[in-house]
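Quick one, T. Sequence first:
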Amino acid sequence: MMTAPTSSDPIMDAIGEAVTAGRAGDTTAARAQLLSLWASIGVNGDPLHRCTLAHYLADLYDDPAQALAWDVRALDAADALTDQRVQEHHAGLRIAGFYPSLHLNLADNYRRLGSFAAARTQITAARECSSALAQDPYGDLIRTAIDEVDEAIAKHDSTPRASAPGPAA
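Structure tokens:
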């Protein structure tokens, strides 16, 4: 979901800095930064900020229940977003492109928790939304992950995927 911005947005910049710290292995600092930002944004804040922050914060938790809580918040915020708002941040974005990843993450969390019926509902939604993905490396990554999670659900496999985003080991 992260791309070069159309205009400067200090909150999105701060989210990006935290994500970078998390991907560099400093998950504790990244979580603290994002949780602090969440407190300032609030549950009724800008849906783009809430969606982006919650989406990335979920990846900083090994526990699928904690990740699930943040992924639900991300989807809820996405439902309040408009193409106009996301294009204010980056002209090439469309909200439809967010949904495959958001539903994929929910499916993976439910699967990891052993809730395979809920996981099946979410992976079906991810697949149905996947036509909004571009034919590019990001789109390929999400489509491949959808296939991986779908296969794991079919096998009732609740082990973490090696390719899943998450805290650095």
